[in-house]
Amino acid sequence: MSTARLSQAQLNQYETEGYVLPTGPVFSEEKFNRLKAHFEKKLAEWPGDKRPEAMDTPHFQDPALFEWALAAEVIDLVEPILGPDILLFSTHFICKPQGDGRRVPWHEDSAYWKGRLDPMEVCTIWLAIDPSTLKNGCMKVIPRTHNTGHKGFSDYDDVDLTSNVFDTEITPTQRRDDMAVPVELAPNHCSLHDARLMHGSEPNTSSIRRCGWTLRFMPAYVEMNQKDADTHVIYQARGRNLAGQRLADPTQSYDDVVQERMRRRRSFH
Q1: pLDDT tens digit sequence for 254-268
Q2: Phi/psi of residue 28, each to 5°?
Q3: Residue 2: inside a domain, yes or no?
Q4: Is the link from the previous residue into 47 a cis peptide, with omega within 30 of 0?
Q5: Rounded to a whole number, what is the largest CA-CA distance in the chain?
Q6: C-alpha atoms less than 13 angstroms from C-alpha of 47 in its C-beta half-sphere
Q7: What is the pLDDT of residues 104-119, one digit of tens each?
């Protein structure tokens, strides 16, 4: 049973501005603390030769994460935006270590998924695991860019991968950095943003780690290109599988999918 967690004013802001900050914590204190402890264990086991910003699709091999990723507290946030039939598209821990956390270049999530989803309708929940502030490189968004300009498919220039999380960035002439709004969040609080919204973040040179968990949902009528079936799986979050797509089992680990992603060096951001 759903209990919508966005007011009409918040829903209007999301539709107009492309993002919104829901009020209050996402989970109970006890449930959030268990999530954070679970993440800390994952981070402790993360290979030392891999950047901690790159913990993409951890749920593929860690079914325990679905306790939180498919929780009613989460799905109730996106149902007012996406409707009652919802799929989980992806998740990603983006952990910027203190001192040398890398910059996230200006980008649109949709640009990484061009040709993979039809139509391009995805809502991202950005859940703060740590405090996320200007000091430690919080996300910044450029309001209204989800339905103006290039509407999710801007042109990109190459950037230095040794100091950035991604190797491309929206070309400066197609964005308005002066309009950027910081999204500062306390732990267990979140923001929502449209996949087509321009966003990014500064490096973390502070003494405080900055970790967030992105959870990406889409209406169940959105279809994933079947050419990606070997490197990505999707899950029913609520309601019906409207397009009759192949769905993954949240009780299973998909090691083969992860191995194929690594072989092809495929990332869904």
Answers
A1: 999 999 998 887 665
A2: -65, 160
A3: no
A4: no
A5: 48
A6: 4
A7: 999 999 999 999 999 9
What is residue 139's three-state secondary structure? strand
Q: Which pair of tokens denotes residue 209?
A: 């780690």
CA 91, 189, 219, 144 dihedral sign is negative
Q: Quote the number of domains for the chain.
A: 1
Domain assignment of residue 19, yes or no: yes
Q: How far apart are CA 35 and CA 263, in angstroms?
A: 30
Residue given tokens 């007011």 in the structure block:
7
The answer on pLDDT for 2 being more than 70 is: no
- Quick one: tokens of 89? 């598209």
**Nearest by Cα to 122 from 209, 193, 49, 47:** 193
Is there a contact between 83 and 11 (Cβ–Cβ < 8 Å)?
A: no
The CATH code of the domain that includes 231 is 2.60.120.620
Closest of 240, 235, 236, 193 to residue 84, by C-alpha: 240
Q: Kindly report each contact of residues 174-179 with a partner whose C-beta sits within 8 Å and lies 24 or more positions away, as own/partner.
A: 174/149, 174/150, 175/106, 175/142, 175/145, 176/142, 176/145, 177/106, 177/142, 179/142, 179/143
Q: Are 196 and 108 in contact (CB under 8 A)?
A: yes
1 domain-assigned: no
Element (H, E) at 123: strand 123-128
Per the structure, the complete domain to which residue 93 belongs is given by 8-264
Average pLDDT over residues 25-29: 98
- Answer yes or no: are the C-beta atoms of 52 and 39 closer than 8 Å: no
